[in-house]
Design a protein that fits this description.
Blueprint: H1 3-41, H2 51-57, H3 59-76, H4 80-103, H5 110-130, H6 133-139, H7 146-167
Helix pairs in contact: 1-3, 3-4, 4-5, 4-7
Length: 168
Amino acid sequence: MSKAWLITEKIISSLQIIFGLLIIYLIFYNNIFLINHYLGETNLGWRDLSFYKIIQNNFLAFTKALFFFMSGILLIKNQTIGWIIGLLIWFNFGLISLLNLLMLHQKVQIVWDINICMLMILCFLNTTILISKVFRKKYKPNWKNWKNWSIILIVLMITLIDIYKILV
């Protein structure tokens, strides 16, 4: 593997870690903003709320964030399972972005359309890079390994649940 591909791999794994942390931050920031607004209107206090409920209400987004974070770390450590998770989660994110763009096209402003398109292009570009022959030679995916199949099935289930939530 040439130095350029190694640098590309490190950039993609860093992006995965940043995406994971950013999604977790946005989940908590958005919910804490809503909670502060809600607490201002009621007599409840902070001790009446829990971070467990925030995670429970945003389970899919939180799971994707953990997959992004884990795959970035495992990709830095050159582990095949990190490559597989990264490949699937980038594809998942791109597909969900495409579906959001198609389903919400009438409801959102053009600025959001441009942002979703850029995110979708980034996701499919990273998917294409990770599925290239160079990475397949490096990681040598083995379809007989039960870990690979379990991760693939989990990410595909998350994708199907996301698609269902968008369509319904």
